[in-house]
Amino acid sequence: MSDSEDDIPLSQINNGPIISKASTLILNAAPIDDSTPDPSEARTSVTISASQDKESSEDSDDIPLTQRKQQLETEKTLASDSDDDIPLADKRAATKQIMKQESSDDDDIPLAKKRKVQAKAKEVPVSKVASSPKRAASTVSTPAPSKKAKKDEVSKKKLKKEEEEREIYRWWEEQTSQRAGDNEDGGDGVIRWTELSHYGVLFPPEYVPHGIQMKYDGKPVTLTPEAEEVASFFAALLESDHGKNPTFQKNFFSDFREVLAKNPKNPRLERFDKCDFTPIWHQFQLDKERKKQLTKEEKLKLKEERQKIEEPFLFATVDGRKEQIGNFRIEPPGLFRGRGDHPKTGRLKRRVYPEQVTLNLGKESPIPPTLPGHKWGKIVHDQQATWLATWKENINDTSKYVFLAPNSSWKGQSDMKKFDKARELKNYVDKIRASYTADLKDKLSEVRQRATAMYLIDRLALRAGNEKGDEEADTVGCCSLRYEHVTLEPPNTVHFDFLGKDSIRYENTVQVDHQVFKNLKLFQNQVGEGHAIFDRLTTTGLNKHLNSCMPGLSAKVFRTYNASFTCQQQLDRLTNADDTLPDKILSFNRANREVAVLCNHQRAASKSHAQQMVKIEDKIRTIKYQRMKLRKQLFSLDASIKKKRPDLAEDESDLDDDWIMQHDIDTIAKEREKVQTKFHKQNEKRKADGEPLQPDSELKDRLAKVEDLKVQLDKERGGDISVAANMTVHKLLDRIARLDDRLNATKIQATDKEENKEISLGTSKMNYIDPRIIVAWCRSYDVPMEKVYSKTLVQKFRWAQDIPDDWKF
DNA sequence: ACTAGCGACTCAGAAAGGTGAAA
DNA sequence: CTTTCACCTTTCTGAGTCGCTAG
């Protein structure tokens, strides 16, 4: 075993796939060479050391986490090409970026550029005229035409698409200074609109009682509609995790009793464990079944009816432009589904009425109608806000908002701003790292804690970690980490184990800079169990400091920066221009996965995952079994091959006699069934066609053939190898080669599946990876965008397509 | 000057819905 | 050819971040 391999922790070798969990990483603070004038130079001059002993890793670490992981995984390949691994283009792009920054900072756009931008801006009103909101709305509502007009329909669709394309507000082609929130001092005080109109919000339908009685103490009880509704909320969740959660049950029952007590007609229910909601639950199951049984036409009709109701709410008009609205529905009443160990989970979320809703509208805009007999709570004209409607939810007394959809200009602009900010951090990060590395030894514990936290946020992409109240789930981020969340193992290994946002567990083992280790130990000892490690640090304080390092910098920018940086770098590393399209997409997904692991984006493994894995393992074994048989035939034809091809002489792993026996039995059973169903089906068809039926003797003949197969399999198991007369060594070798390919493909599929079991790629793709990285990648490797972005994401990131081909993060 | 609380926004996984390939 | 199942997309709404303001 080589030195370097020795340093890879066992855990990583064993459970290779599960990278984030229990993988040990080496993280040392960057000793930054201050003499380097250009920060981008500092980055590119990083050397990737081949050996991972603690000594040498000290100099090799100006590298985000994921890069380090790769480093560990692929040391052998990297050993030879350390420095030239980083493309020149990267260097150039970085320098270019700085120049661009400097010039746009003081609003000093070159004249030539300005002219171009203005010209483009002028085009906008033209397209606006071409598609007045009214006309567009009528296009959307075009009902499905008859089959005869199919051709017509296709061309109409094309037209519609073109029209929609024209309708898109290409804000990214306009002069930047006009854009709200584009200035450095944040977006406050900025007027976002002068004209705003929309149709308000869509309320859920009133409750329709079903009359199914729940039971109490074994006896059916009659409830008022209001109480029945609440009982039904719970009944629907009876078999879910929520329904089985004691806190959920307790909170639900307490609120349920309150509702019951409001009307004397309701019975008094004292104990939850005497309640039986199964009658309602069963009814719901039935309803679901019935809904599934509906014909295609009926389903389509229902869908169209739904869409007709939604239609007026779909779009808002902002300064004369049509913009899609994200969530125009008022959240229906139900039971609060808090994540993790939320103290309020299961409480009744009450129905919202118009009186509780505030609308944000232009002064001139008509006030939309609302539920009969009701009035809107308030109408405001807040031109600095981007929300269209708001209301308070009764569980935590927090605000809910109606916003425009992700493809809107408001969302797009702030998205672009976010990624530009992260990209700007590239130019500051070396300085910032140098500064916090120095601060790790500061005498003031406040400063020291801040530096240590910055190290963790930078290197591990942790969230800031605001303080939380008693009425919320106990989850933490960097600043709120407590004693028990961190375990130190000398000389410099740190184990993290805590619940983060959404109560998702963060479990990671890393090797850190010695000073960081020392600091953590010191802070831990000072505070003791149950207390925050960074007792002198608040997120506000941290962010204030970060803002002084770089305008607009806050903790979350590091997450965006690290994610995008990692993605860019992984894509560059993994993609080959001459790969096939599926291979390129595999590389893409790998890069994406790297980011998801970094950000700890998880999902619940599907219930059938284990089953699916068994199935795929079985598939692998079946291939191996077939391969073994071919090998044996090969050797019986020509024994000399054993020596010529020692690789073929080796036995296939994990093929045991028991499995083979069972496999043969299963094969025969399946074959029998197949023959029988086929026979019966054929006869049924003949019957329908009025042809004479096949006699039972035919079935017997066919089944006899299966028996022959059985005999042959039994023989083969006994070591009796039969080779077909026309079989040749060449043919057999060919077949084995093909099986090997299939085996490999299936194995990769299995690994991939296992690796992805609990990793969610969507969140990073949607929120953390600069879409321009992906657009540029798609262009340079000739991959259609639709292969990596869903329809909605393509729309959301339309702005990102306006970049030069060689764009780099 | 500090802090708690809150408003408005981004980010998050679960669940529902849709689709296309395998059985 | 139909049905089933696995996977992907969209919807939903809860959970964070972060700056501001009031006391």
What this model shows, in words?
Among the domains are: 214-295, Yeast DNA topoisomerase - domain 1 (Arc Repressor Mutant, subunit A, Orthogonal Bundle); 610-754, no CATH class. The protein is α+β, with helices and mostly antiparallel strands and 809 residues long. β6 and β7 (321-324) form a beta hairpin. Residues 1-26, 28-150 and 180-187 have low confidence and may be disordered. The chain is globular, with a radius of gyration of 33 Å. The relative contact order is 0.08. It has a four-stranded mixed beta sheet with strand order 1-16-15-14, with helices on one face. It contains 30 helices and 16 strands. The protein binds a DNA duplex (23 and 23 nucleotides) through residues 186, 188, 327, 329, 331, 336-339, 342, 385-387, 390, 393, 396-401, 403, 411, 414-415, 418, 463-466, 468, 472-473, 475, 477, 500-504, 538-540, 543, 554-556, 601-604, 606, 608, 612, 760, 762-763, 766-768, 790-793. It is found in: Nucleus. Residues 150-159, 676-690 have a biased composition (Basic and acidic residues). One of its GO terms (cellular component) is nucleolus.
Main attributes of the structure:
809 residues, alpha+beta, four-stranded mixed sheet, DNA-binding
Record field, number of beta strands = 16
Portion in strands: 5-15%
State the helical fraction: 40-55%
- Which parts are unreliable, with pLDDT below 50 for 5 consecutive residues or more? 1-26, 28-150, 180-187
Summarize model confidence as the mean pLDDT. 80
Content-based structural category: alpha+beta
Shape: globular
Number of helices: 30
Task: Identify the strand order in the major beta sheet.
Answer: 1-16-15-14
Distance between the termini: 39 Å
Tell me the quaternary state: single chain
Q: Biggest sheet: strands, sense, closure?
A: 4 strands, mixed
Gyration radius, in Å: 33 Å
